[in-house]
Fold:
Amino acid sequence: MFQRIGEKIAVVGVYNHGTFTPKRFKWHTREYPIEEITLASDIKDGGVRKRLYSTLSKGNLYRLCFNRDDEGWTLEEVWAEG
Structure:
């Protein structure tokens, strides 16, 4: 089931040769390890540059968004089987 979230989150990751890879994120009080990144893409939303990550964690798909202008993270969507 697809669910729109649109909430701020905290993300931890690593930089390797100038490329950032998210490793886990915190949503509310829970921490989610990122097991796989299935897609990473750059977009423009009006004049705002963003990078979207589709990630797998604990059997669910999460879409994370990094706003390159304000350097904030948002959990955009969740796809959970159920």
User: Anything to note?
Assistant: The two ends are 7 Å apart (CA to CA).
